[in-house]
From TrEMBL:
Name listed for the protein in its UniProt record: Aspartate aminotransferase
Annotated source species: Viridothelium virens
Catalysed reaction equations from the record: L-aspartate + 2-oxoglutarate = oxaloacetate + L-glutamate
Residues of the signal peptide: none
The keyword Membrane is assigned to this record: no
GO molecular function ontology, one term from the record: pyridoxal phosphate binding
Length: 417
């Protein structure tokens, strides 16, 4: 009889990893039996009845696809569905962009925005001139950014972004750090609806950021998860990207369709690389595309079909695309209404503190300014679930619970005085 072997992946060699804090919070919410409970943690859109909303434009696209006599389940090319990639490209940089006109852009379908950030990080980690100093992330930023860039071997540094005192952008701090970043550093920028703060640079501030990046020879990498969802305007929400391209920057873009099409589980995204203008731009793009193909092939082989087909129909059918823009205005409009209702509720309760940032911030999230102890008190006493930084998903509020949430905030703020 053979003796029982010892596992190579033993408890000694494999430490227990902590549970993802966000999904741990979701599990705690699901286990809560209170009929008053509110989930303000995960960034997913909910309608005014707290239900998931399948966009009408997406429903139309699904019906068309299901009725397509040529429907099949074949593999896509390594780069993805061509009609989706081309439409996503036009959406993010503008149909009249010089990057498209001059063939200075290459694009790959990815596993949503997360996959796009990862693919871009892997490309830059491997092929930027060595040593690559670091990638600079805003403080705070989307929690997964750190994990992704650590996994591809990029050193991480931070630039100031949010002022806890003013509840607005720390623009001077940001410019100061970017101004001292070593040449060749990568700067991760949120194109719109900054996650988690909901605070975006003005158009004038974007111009100043661009000047610093050019002067210091830094590499801009845009993460765009909320185009059209933030303001309700697709053109307004890609302003920064168009500005950088129009001014001749080399850059990378991670693009997601999870929020703006509600295709969360379909994982639809794209990565785009844009070369500087010049005689060698097309050759650079071809070389970058060849390396992206190897990276993509070695990780996922080819991207998934269904979600890309749906997004492609929405983007390429003029009537459905117009319906989609109406859906975007519906979502962004409801969230803005919740911002106004929450601030009004806090004002009526005369809650201590200043709450103007609730309505001046934009997009799905709001950085409330609540402390960790106040957040925990909201969870224990009021059954309100939000991350410990004080960030809330505005989509979790509705006409039935926004007053309750305002009262809960008022209570924990007064208790802390």
């Amino acid at each position: 009889m053979l003796s029982s072997p010892e596992s190579a992946l033993s408890a000694k060699n494999v430490p227990q990893a902590p549970e993802d804090p966000l999904y741990g919070l979701v599990n705690a919410y699901l286990s809560d039996k209170s009929d008053k409970k509110i989930d303000l943690s995960v960034g997913v859109y909910r309608d005014d009845n707290a239900k998931p909303w399948v966009l009408p434009a997406v429903q139309k696209a699904e019906q068309l696809y299901q009725c397509d006599p040529d429907l099949d389940h074949e593999y896509l090319p390594i780069a993805g569905l061509p009609e989706f990639i081309n439409a996503a490209q036009r959406l993010i940089v503008g149909a009249d962009s010089p990057a498209i006109r001059e063939s200075r852009i290459c694009s790959f379908q990815t596993i949503s925005g997360t996959g796009a950030v990862h693919l871009g990080g892997a490309l830059l980690s491997r092929f930027l001139p060595l040593p690559t100093p670091a990638i600079y992330l805003s403080s705070p930023t989307w929690a997964i950014h750190d994990q992704i860039f650590n996994n591809v071997g990029l050193a991480i540094k931070e630039y100031p972004y949010f002022s806890s005192k003013t509840k607005m952008m720390d623009f001077d701090g940001m410019i100061s750090v970017l101004g001292s970043a070593p040449p060749g550093s990568i700067i991760l920028l949120h194109a719109c609806a900054h996650n988690p703060t909901g605070v975006d640079p003005t158009h004038d501030q974007w111009g100043k950021i661009a000047k610093i990046i050019r002067a210091n020879r830094l590499f801009p990498f845009f993460d765009c998860a909320y185009q059209g969802f933030a303001s309700g305007s697709l053109a307004q929400d890609n302003f920064a990207i168009r500005y950088f391209i129009d001014h001749g920057f080399e850059l990378a873009i991670a693009q997601s369709f999870s929020k703006n099409m509600g295709l969360y589980g379909q994982r639809v995204g794209a990565f785009h690389y844009i070369a500087c203008p010049g005689s060698g731009a097309q050759e650079i793009v071809e070389r970058v595309a060849s390396q992206l193909a190897i990276l993509q092939r070695s990780e996922i082989s080819t991207p998934p079909l269904f979600g890309a087909k749906i997004a492609s129909i929405v983007l390429n059918d003029k009537e459905i695309c117009a319906d989609w823009e109406k859906d975007l205005r519906t979502m962004s409009g409801r969230i803005n209404t919740m911002r106004e209702s929450l601030k009004q509720g806090l004002d009526q309760l005369q809650t201590p503190g200043q709450w103007g940032h609730i309505t001046s911030q934009i997009g799905m999230f709001s950085f409330t300014g609540l402390s960790k102890s106040q957040v925990l008190s909201l969870r224990e006493k009021w059954h309100v679930y939000m991350v410990e930084t004080g960030r809330i998903s505005m989509a979790g509020l509705n006409s039935g619970n926004v007053r309750y949430f305002a009262e809960a905030v008022d209570d924990v703020v007064r208790a802390a005085k």
